[in-house]
Specification:
homotetramer, alpha/beta, 2 domains, seven-stranded mixed sheet, six-stranded parallel sheet
Chain lengths: 347, 347, 347, 347
């Protein structure tokens, strides 16, 4: 690590991932925030949008146009799907590495993207360059990447709940059910009936049944690990909490299994992954809130002969902002845990 | 219906089902509450335990010993598992009909009970007499019953999510996953770490993985409907809300299916069931809160060739107290909806 | 009471008070809902906007233009401030009585209104006709009214917390502080940053400091009771709950006081008011949720020589919809509690 | 600051302040946690009690008896009131400095303590030695202290909301009302009806009306600042959130005032206090959650001629654990912000 701090841009300041990136990067010892952009709030102090930063990060927001005029090491794109791709195309020769937190480069190809996102892709060449930024699986490729597609929140939790089984090709195809539950911040900062307090509080419901976009992202990654195509049933639900994803994954296996063997498979797979914690009891989302941890808890049900694997993350951190910082650490050869050692905030 | 009101006893006043029974019965036009018992609060006004009843139901709590001295039509047992059975045994010749809200007589036999509840059963003869009180399935048998075993909350939602498929013997054995989520009142009124606000609020977790007692209750009833044994994977989770259960059930079928046919199967099965609402969009738990409704929403996923069937209930009502009142209405030949026409309280 | 049911219109269906009115009126034994209007949803079933009514109230929404063509006994205006006044003007000769749930006719005059609402008033003559619809204070005048201004939610709780002291002219002028806390439904159904889940959940803040419109409504009514002008300090806060207002009122008195005397003053004032409950311990908002009760708890602090009077209501019911129904009962000479006997929904 | 880390003990590990102390001290660059004690959990890993620490702080809990055998620089007492005093007495000659988070040494004398806590004090000599640990007021005395009485959560927020006015002797005696609202963690980790989820969630109520112990702590400190006795009306309420205190303080002044002058008085008083943020809009508790900030917002109401001053803190941090760490920094001549630069966790 040089004494020169990394100069970073955060593009897209109004959302939750933008403010979480700022929070993490502000206290990161090797980073200096050069610019934060927001087209609709140019000139306003960042802390006007996010009052928790009052007195700590009051720099004025700028237009994204300014980014190309600056000397930057890394650009974080905290933009909606369908918007990121244009900036990636525009800034591909700037010299700065790009970490894209949208879904624009997470899938394998233009065709798959356009089918699942129902949107034209404007920079298909990016698919070949982009590396899927899940450090537990692709640390080496990430280290060499110039463009990282930061994973979706549900895919992060879902993939980590099942990866050890797919890696050993143990999963019976067609048997996987991923029943996922997310806090409301996953629905974004925009005010609409979905995010209205009275529709969320004391409520719980499923959405995107049989068609959520994260399905294909999970299938491509799990299939890639196993070396063969896979189809999963993925159902997301909306929890009346701010943060957290809990995924309950079910699978039949091709071979015999018992609890001890199952635990061993997971322990081995995650042995050098400092942010995956193999738990000895069912984890709650609050056990990881405010942290970069993914807690995993696999159970073998002898009676039904199935695996039930539960994983939890903070959707804004391991599911977005801290994962992006983890990727940055890898891309710039910093110790991977730098700036990420938050103990979960509980209660 | 005679002009004579039914004289009822509520045995066990301190819990949530006790107070919900009181709330429903107090406004039921054909009922007069004769006695409410609580061994630990004898002499105290009922409203001391449940201040929402202040000025409306201040009668002093009595000992259960008083019940046998009274002229009663029906006794509601709102007692813990393992306690109810003794009262059923003791009061079997009183003349009053008994509706037991505990799990003591829900299963098929002493042996099954003792395996899953890890407890000696003191009145095994009750199993042959007890009728499983799910009105949508057993209205006629309930009408003739002297002892009704009021169903568990999870089983009510789970069974109603899948019954139409089991009734037509469409379900592929071994394929059923029931991923269930319940509000905290399901954990009871007792103060312990599980019910401490800070462990529930902003949290979400699974419990009873691979071994919850309600599993066997669901399996026995669904198997009974189909006429053959069935095994299901049942996983409950704890929601940070007061009330509500949402069940997401998954099944493979033995035959071809499409959405239209699936909807038709459900519509037909529930056509004369006033409290099951076949919804045209994914229901939330708040859509039924404070009411006796069970909302059901079945989806056929053409891509995965699976059924995803979602159902929601208020766990304290359709999952306990209002179900008990529904059973009472059937047992005494009252119109089945009497006293149960609450519109859900939303927001 | 005649056997002819009252024919009612609900004008403004999309908000919370509209749906709560529908819920109460649907189960009111002497009412038939003739029409529900919503300009932006004409033709849609009411239950599309409020799915809790699915299968129970699916009638299509109509335009307010239809109201004048119908034979109606009473019109409920569940409209925003500034909109109601035009309909009151337009329908003044229809023959139907009008209960306006907005703030348009709650104050004493056009001038006061225009100062506090910063809006031109289009029908100032209405001020002289309108009766302030707080049944505990003005039951007789309400019975004779053709136009009732249904009180604000904060004023209802605030006035009832202090009325007995003002009625006896005991309050030292300038000493009254009303620190009020309301659930989020008070902020309305509209999606905006204020009602976004993430801004409300786990949060709490004051708003409208030193200038909230309800201040003058409280001052005019309390002053009216005492027969002299009064100024109060009123500060509202936003609670992370759906329903409920709790008001903590502080006052110095002109005379000596003790707890016994204070309790007696309140008991006497509210002795024939069935929906005000003088509690013997500090009430919580959940003790009245879903009901028409206002629970009041006055304390004399001997050490500081001040009164602390706490009151709680359900802001959508006693603070809006059930108060309107109570007023309707009085206006049509029905027993005042008709259709209002809900026990609070707790937990 | 030497390179030698401070060796610290946390006495009392099971509560929320114990775990928050551990979280802060674990990431404090100049601290090494030598021992954590819990009499009821000796031998268990700390992370068994607080699973958020899994893999990060798994050291076994020890008995407090071990403390006196160790070489320690500072001992944090995270114990209940009435228990701390015995340990302070016992360990007074150990050489380690003591920071007591209980209420045992916050007041001026044995007599005052015994009147308000209704408990015998076993170590009255401690009152003369103890320094009240509010860094904004007493930084210099804290730096020299051997025993610090860490302030109560309500007093911290209350005192900081009014200190600038008392310091200038502007407050009209007898006029101060402090209406305070706290998250549930203020009620402690113990499971009882008060902390049961169903009594807190969607609820809100006052408690300790006219007699809460923090009243005298506030009065003694504010009186001390002004140099004369003061009496305040203090009413705490319980919020359905985990963390956060918001205090709404009201005062009449002896002199003329306007908004500009008021803001200036506060700005001047807090100019060198890095953790008090004088806000330009009403703060919410979430603006400071997870941080050491106290946000203050004073308003002059020209109409009523009163000050309304709002302050917010995280009750577990600025109201307990981070305040204790701040005190430690001062006592050991570390830069006062060391280990305390957390940006609030929002949303």
């Amino acid at each position: 690590m040089s004494h020169q701090k990394l100069k970073v841009a955060i593009v897209g300041a109004s959302g939750f991932t933008g403010s979480e990136l700022a929070r993490l990067l502000l206290n990161h010892p090797d980073v200096s925030i050069s610019i934060i952009t927001s087209e609709s709030h140019v000139g306003k102090p960042f802390s006007d949008l996010h009052p928790q930063f009052f007195n700590r990060l009051d720099i004025p927001l700028e237009s994204a146009d300014q980014v190309s005029k600056m000397d930057l090491d890394v650009i974080f794109l905290a933009l909606p799907h369908g918007v990121s791709m244009d900036f990636v195309a525009k800034w591909k020769d700037l010299g700065a590495k790009i970490i894209d937190l949208s879904g624009d480069f997470r899938l394998s190809s233009k065709d798959v993207y356009e089918e699942w996102y129902q949107k034209k892709h404007s920079y298909p060449i990016g698919f070949s360059e982009a590396v899927y930024g899940l450090p537990e699986l692709f640390a080496k490729k990430i280290a060499d990447a110039r463009l990282v597609a930061n994973p979706g929140c549900y895919p992060t939790a879902s993939i980590l709940s099942l990866a050890p089984l797919y890696a050993k090709q143990l999963v019976e195809e067609g048997s996987v059910i991923i029943d996922a539950k997310s806090g409301l911040t996953g629905a974004g900062v925009k005010a609409n009936p979905t995010t209205h307090f009275s529709n969320v509080n004391e409520n719980f419901k499923a959405y995107g049944i049989a068609g959520h976009r994260h399905t294909i992202e999970i299938e491509e990654q799990l299939g890639g690990i196993a070396g063969s195509n896979t189809t999963v049933q993925f159902t997301p639900h909306l929890l009346p909490v701010d943060r957290g994803i809990l995924v309950t994954s079910y699978a039949k296996l091709k071979t015999e299994m018992n609890q001890e063997k199952l635990t061993e498979i997971y322990a081995e797979y995650y042995q050098d992954k400092p942010f995956v914690r193999l738990r000895n009891q069912a984890p709650g989302i609050k056990d990881v809130r405010g942290s970069h941890f993914c807690d995993v808890f696999p159970t073998w049900d002898e009676r039904t002969q199935k695996v039930i694997s539960i994983s939890v993350i903070d959707n804004l951190l391991k599911g977005a902002a801290s994962q992006a910082v983890h990727n940055m650490n890898l891309m710039f050869d910093l110790p991977e845990a730098t700036g990420l050692n938050h103990i979960p905030l509980k209660p």
